[in-house]
Design goal:
Elements (H helix, E strand, L loop, with lengths): L3 H15 L14 H10 L5 E7 L4 H7 L13 H11 L6 E3 L2 E4 L4 E6 L5 E2 L1 E3 L8 H7 L16 E2 L4 E5 L4 E6 L7 E6 L1
Parallel strand pairs: 1-4, 3-10
Antiparallel strand pairs: 1-2, 4-8, 5-7, 6-9, 9-10
Helix pairs in contact: 4-5
């Protein structure tokens, strides 16, 4: 049986997310983002560096446990198994950024596309940490939230089928994490 506090925290995050700007939601008339990602990566000069946000939530079990609209994809990992795996391994492999290591050049654009069924963020952080759901942080072994996760705005939430872009403007290494699922991480090295 799952702890009531975990369900309550996830429900609170779900309410927060449902109030965020979902204008970028998947739309059958919208351009095919996956094709755009592959075309951008293959373009001469590679002006765009694509990153996929991925998960494998099961709509029926996640929406029942957390609330309607939490997961928008049919069939996947059941919520109870997700919680069990997270507690055992401090991460769930299907919830990830792909690739997790990115090489970029100054002036290129990072294009993070949500290919999962849940809302995610692609948030630049100084150091990896926890996110905005304390119980998921505890299960992931990251009890202290990254400060940047505590300052999110509505537009930082990327719904299923949506995307987020950010221009790379200086050399160095930048770290990104999902502030809902803090084990989802990527490092971007820019030269």
């Amino acid at each position: 049986m799952r702890p009531r506090s975990l369900v309550a925290a996830c429900a609170a995050a779900s309410v927060l997310l449902s109030c965020s700007d979902r204008s970028q939601s998947a739309d059958p008339t919208a351009p095919d983002l996956e094709s755009e990602v592959h075309a951008a990566a293959a373009a001469p000069g590679g002006g765009t560096r694509p990153v996929l946000m991925m998960d494998a939530c099961d709509a029926e079990s996640f929406n029942t446990a957390i609330g309607p609209g939490t997961c928008a994809r049919p069939h996947g990992l059941l919520f109870d198994k997700f919680i069990r795996l997270l507690g055992e391994h401090h991460s769930v492999g299907a919830w990830r950024f792909a690739p997790a290591t990115i090489n970029a050049k100054v002036g290129q654009t990072l294009l993070a596309v949500n290919r999962g069924g849940e809302v995610h963020t692609f948030t630049e952080v100084q150091a990896f940490g926890g996110g905005i759901v304390p119980e998921l942080n505890a299960l992931a072994g990251t009890p202290v939230p990254a400060p940047e996760c505590l300052a999110l705005q509505g537009g930082d939430f990327v719904p299923p089928g949506g995307s987020y872009t950010e221009e790379v403007d200086q050399p160095g290494t930048r770290l990104y994490e999902c502030c809902l699922h803090p084990w989802m991480r990527a490092a971007v090295t820019t030269r």
